Each structure stands twice: as C-alpha cells, then as structure tokens.
C-alpha cells in the first residue's frame, strides 16, 4: 500500500510540475542567462585580448534599468522592453574596471577604472587556487611535519583580511589550515598558529608566520554524516505525505510567480542571491493588483568575530560583498531542504573566466501547510449557540541556501494571503572554532573569547548582522515613513479611576536623519505609508515593519570593522531611491575603508517625505556558542515581517475559502 501511495504522489507531482513553468520572453528584470554571460565574455575578451592581458571577471550581473523606465514599461507591457545590459567588474592589469555591456547592440557602453578604496567580490576560482598553494610551499610543509601531521590530510581555506587603518594594501587573502584525518568536519580540527598571506594578483604566498603550536582537536565526535554515526541513535521521526491532487497552487511564467492573491518576480544575483521584485497583491474589494514591494534583497551580511588575538583579529567578514551570497548558493536537496510539493529552479552566475556556472536546484518554491491558523474565533456569549469559525493558514515560500565557508544560511521569503511578507533567516552549519590547550573549563584563567565546546576546542563569540534592502512602493511610488510613537498619558484630573494609559503620537520623517531608528530606545510602530491614498474611513494606506529580536552592534563606533560596518549602527534607515545605492557596505567591500556605505550616503540628509523611498532594515544575532552547537549547529531562526496596516479596508482573508480536504483510504478527519 505504501509503495502504491508513493507512486501516485510521484505521478501527480510530476505531471503538475512539468506543466507549471511556462515559456516566456525576457522580462527587463530577468537575471542574465548562460548565453548572455557567454556574450559578455566574448565582447570583453575581444576588447582586451587575453594574449596581452590576463582578465578575470569578479562580477557579472544585470545592469537593471532605472526604476522609472521599468514602471513606464509596466504601464504598457506590450511595448518594446528596455535594452538588456550587463554590469561587469573585471580585474585587468591589477586594476578594477567597471564595464557596461549592451547585450542588444553587443558593444561596450562604458569602461572606467576604479581608483577608490577596496576590491571587488572574491571569485571561487581564485579562492580555490590560493588554498592549494601551501601544499608545495616548503616552510608550510616543514611546519606540518613539526606537528607530526600528514600533509595529505591538511586542507586550507581562505579568509578576507579586513582593514585596520592601512592607507594602501595589495589584494591579498589569508589562509588558515585544518586537519581532516578521521573526519570531514574540517573546521573542528584547526591547525592553530600558522597563517599564510596570498597575493591574489600574483597568486603567490607573500607572507608566512608559524607563531605557536597547540594540540589539534580530536576527530572523535566531530562527524556529522549520517553514514558515520554509531549507536545509540536518536528517535526516528515519523514521515508525513503531502499531496495536492489539483497540483501546486502557483504558476511560474518565466521568472514571474503567481499564487493566491500575490504576484512577484524572482531574480538571482551572484552577490545578493534571491531578489524579489514587483510584488503586488490582489485587492478583492477594489478588483485590482496593488503595489507593495518594488525590489528587495539581502544587501549585506556582517559577521565580526570577537577574538582580538593575532590569528583572529581580522575575522570581520562581509559575506555578501566579499564572498557573494549567490555565488555561495548550494543545490537544494528534495524532501530535506524542501518538502515534497516543492518546485525547483536553477540559477547561473559567471566564473572568473566569464563562462556560465549552473547551480542546479538553487531555489525551491512551495506552498507551506504548517498547521498554522490564518484566523479563528469561537463565540460562546450568544445563548444556546456555539459559533466556531477557523481558517487554516497556507503560505508560499521561496527558499535558497547559501553556504559561506562554515555557515549555512537558509533564506526564506514567505508570502501570506493576509498580505504579510515574512522574511526568514536560518543559521546552521559549523561553528568557527579555535584550537586551545584547555580540556576543561577549570583550567581556563584568561579570556578565551568563546565557549569551550570540546577538548582543545573553543567556539568563538561573534555576530551576524543581515541588512535588507526594501524598496517598498505602498500602493504607488511616493511614500512616507511614519513613526507611530506609543506615549504614556497620565490622568491627573480624576476623570477616570485609571491613572495612566498610552496613546499613539504620529511623527512623519521629513529627512533621512529623522528616520534613523535604534530599537529599544522608544516604543513605536514603524510604518511606510502612501500619504496620497486613503482607506474609505480616511487612514493612510501603509505597511508596517514588525522586527524580530533587537540586536545592536557592541563594537566601538571607531573600531575599524565597525567603521566598515557602520550601516548596522541603526536598525532602520530610510533613503530616497537611487539606483546606485544598493549595497549597504559599498560596491567594493573587500578591504574597504567605510567611505562608501549606507551610513555615509545618509549623511546628505536628503528629503524623504512623500518621495520614492527605500527602507533598510538590519536584523541579526549575537552568537554565544554552546555545546549543543557542536559538532554541527541546529538551525537558529530569526527574521521579521512586513504587514499591511490600513492597506485594506477590512480583513483581506475574511472570504478566503479553506483548502478542500483530501481523503485517503483508512483515514479519518473526525476529532
């Protein structure tokens, strides 16, 4: 019987999934295709023949048309779409070139050399090449022998070096190495004390330091592969079958997804990963789609570690701008990363030589039947009546996972019929661990900057700050940012038995400085409103930011990593739309000096009232590692919600019909 059910499920899902994705013409916001990457490579290489110069492609992505052009095209989608262009950052003769390629005319529109601070995105190819250099470097080989380790069991990994006040620096990476004898959990067995510096333009080791020797942590207890686990085992969790006899409730036309009352465009970028654009929701009362979000993505992820010692002080990573969320995307595993009813999509980026690289199953999209309640009420106050109305909740989830070194980041965009968009982030993978001499906490008499997780193993304290770019267009482009402050009113005239209550005092931000918000200082609800649109009863239509737990940066503002990560100094920023302002840490983040960040742009204090504005929100975690995080970390979840606030005239899911029950043999839906 079980095998028959599995066959039915497979056939149903296969039929509907194959018919789900429609063919389409290019949407102006579609990600670049493999053929377009190849075309860009051909055009640039033709301009700079490789026989003379060694060119590497650090970034190739869509040069998206300016917003007014897109909106004009959307108003008449039968018109000719705007020209397709690619934005390229290439390294050529130790310089960074910014190149714009017109894909329709096949010409380079502009080419300028960047002379500022910082370097572009690191490619996987150059990182892999750098990590192989120690295997033939004689001083390193001697250091490994000195420790009694087998060189063939040593692997090295790349680490960005940060910036600590240097006026100029070469384009370099640091290498740290690990011992994999007896385990694949390399981060659990660091070879402490050895640091190598690689010049990426020369691709050679330029500095070497073997400063100290500490024991390499044991391999025992570090394996996480299911095949390597030994009894006793944990409980086996029961499976559940999810079937949709009518097929998935969403449709994909090219990169445009339609589901329930939502419609949006899904893009991919080698740096940002998933990009959600043109999200609009159907208003049943008004009988039309209404704008919510023009464009949204993770702009930067700042991960500073809290160990100031020689081998660790520089570990202050910018995972998007240095390593690329999209470049770090991994193939999702059906029935594990995503449920049985998921549909998978591939994505592409360009390697360092410009050839396209395919990431199979980079995205999954699925309807989430999690057992949640959309709304309910039981009424017991009417004599001789019990009224019970319940609607089960179903949502649509777009998921990608980026593995940046040791950490796996689960990125979810969840759309709800109520109009809410929930942005979820899950942290899992392996901790960054430090080898030490200690085997028990009783031996520790100094600050070790972390938690002793196992013998000779410290999990170092660190932060994760994710900054989202959210170009909200709430029922139109011109919006305002409103702080609905909750203020206590004291009753002093004896007009009520109460002595106090709170009320809402609204404050509209006029300029950027008015919209810099640090959570916890003053209770308030933060709303992006359209002052030009009102509900039937006169409220401004809006969308509210419901944050997760507040995580404030604890580094000094004048500390070098925090200067570069100054965009985390506030939980919320609001800026006027500017096509060039999309990366919170700047366009060139590797070894940047903090002079091209969201914090710097905002100093202009531009007007933002009733303008086309962008909301930037940072969410995150202070991570104090614990033993449960070892050897692999259970997912730590966070996120926030964008929720309609007077956007609709009443509950938009009041008339939502519950899903039809699915009947199976030998099953009952009786309580």
Structural account:
Belongs to the copper/topaquinone oxidase family. Its EC number is 1.4.3.-. Its cofactor is Cu cation. One of its GO terms (molecular function) is primary methylamine oxidase activity. This is Amine oxidase. The longest helix has 17 residues, at 2-18. The strands form five sheets. This protein has a 20-stranded mixed sheet that branches. Strands 2-3-4-5 form a four-stranded antiparallel sheet, covered by helices on one side. Strands 6-7-8-9 form a four-stranded antiparallel sheet, with helices on one face. Strand 4 and strand 5 (107-114) form a beta hairpin. The protein has eight helices and 33 strands. The chain is 11% helix and 39% strand. It is mainly beta and 671 residues long. It is globular, with a radius of gyration of 27 Å.
């Amino acid at each position: 019987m079980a095998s028959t059910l599995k066959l039915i499920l497979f056939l149903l899902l296969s039929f509907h999934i194959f018919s789900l994705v429609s063919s389409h013409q290019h949407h102006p916001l579609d990600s670049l295709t493999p053929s377009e990457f190849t075309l860009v490579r051909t055009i640039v290489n033709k301009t700079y023949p490789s026989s003379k110069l060694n060119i590497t492609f650090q970034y190739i992505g869509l040069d998206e048309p300016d917003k007014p052009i897109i909106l004009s095209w959307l108003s008449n989608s039968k018109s000719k779409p705007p020209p397709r262009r690619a934005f390229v950052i290439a390294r050529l003769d130790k310089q960074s070139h910014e190149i714009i390629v017109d894909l329709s005319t096949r010409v380079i529109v502009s080419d300028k050399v960047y002379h500022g601070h910082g370097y572009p995105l690191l490619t996987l190819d150059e990182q892999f090449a750098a990590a192989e250099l120690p295997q033939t470097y004689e001083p390193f080989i001697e250091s490994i022998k000195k420790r009694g380790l087998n060189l063939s069991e040593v692997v090295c990994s790349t680490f960005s070096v940060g910036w600590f006040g240097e006026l100029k620096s070469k384009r370099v990476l640091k290498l740290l190495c690990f011992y994999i004898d007896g385990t694949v959990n390399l981060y659990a067995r660091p070879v402490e004390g050895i640091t190598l510096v690689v010049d990426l333009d020369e691709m050679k080791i330029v500095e070497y330091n073997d400063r100290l020797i500490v024991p390499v942590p044991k391999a025992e207890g570090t394996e996480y592969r299911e095949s390597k686990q030994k009894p006793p085992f944990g409980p086996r969790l029961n499976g559940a079958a999810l079937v949709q006899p009518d097929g998935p409730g969403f449709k994909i036309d090219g990169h445009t997804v339609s589901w329930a009352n939502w419609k949006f465009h899904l893009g991919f970028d080698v740096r940002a990963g998933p990009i959600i654009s043109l999200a609009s929701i159907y208003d049943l009362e008004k009988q039309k789609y209404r704008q919510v979000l023009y464009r949204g993505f993770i702009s930067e992820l700042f991960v500073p570690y809290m160990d100031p010692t020689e081998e660790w002080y520089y570990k202050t990573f910018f995972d998007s701008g240095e390593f690329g969320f999209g470049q770090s995307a991994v193939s999702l595993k059906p029935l594990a990363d995503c449920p049985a009813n998921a549909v998978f999509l591939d994505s592409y980026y360009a390697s360092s030589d410009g050839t396209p690289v395919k990431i199979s199953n980079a995205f999954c999209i699925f309807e989430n039947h999690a057992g949640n309640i959309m709304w309910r009420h039981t009424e017991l106050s009417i004599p001789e009546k019990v009224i019970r109305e319940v609607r089960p909740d179903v949502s649509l989830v777009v998921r990608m996972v980026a593995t940046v070194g040791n950490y796996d980041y689960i990125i979810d965009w969840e759309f709800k019929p109520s109009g809410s968009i929930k942005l979820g982030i899950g942290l899992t993978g392996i901790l960054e661990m430090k080898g030490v001499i200690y085997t028990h906490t009783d031996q520790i008499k100094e600050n070790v900057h972390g938690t002793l997780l196992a013998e000779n193993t410290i999990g170092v304290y660190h932060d994760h700050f994710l900054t989202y770019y959210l170009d909200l267009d709430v029922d139109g482009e011109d919006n305002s940012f409103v702080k609905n402050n909750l203020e206590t009113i004291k009753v002093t005239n004896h007009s009520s038995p109460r002595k106090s209550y709170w009320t809402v005092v609204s404050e509209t931000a006029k300029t950027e400085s008015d919209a810099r918000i640090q959570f916890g200082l003053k209770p308030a609800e933060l709303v992006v409103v359209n002052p030009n649109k009102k509900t039937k009863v006169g409220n401004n239509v809006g969308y509210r930011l419901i944050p997760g737990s507040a995580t404030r940066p604890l580094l000094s503002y004048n500390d070098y990593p925090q200067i570069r990560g100054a965009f985390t100094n506030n939980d919320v920023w609001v800026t006027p739309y500017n096509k060039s302002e999309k990366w919170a840490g700047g366009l060139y983040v590797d070894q940047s000096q903090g002079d091209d960040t969201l914090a710097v742009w905002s100093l202009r204090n531009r007007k933002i009232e009733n303008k086309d504005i962008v909301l930037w929100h940072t969410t995150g975690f202070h991570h104090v590692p614990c033993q449960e995080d070892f050897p692999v970390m259970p997912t730590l979840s966070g996120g926030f919600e964008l929720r309609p606030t007077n956007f609709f005239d009443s509950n938009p899911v009041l008339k939502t019909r519950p899903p039809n029950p699915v009947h199976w043999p030998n099953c009952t839906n009786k309580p």
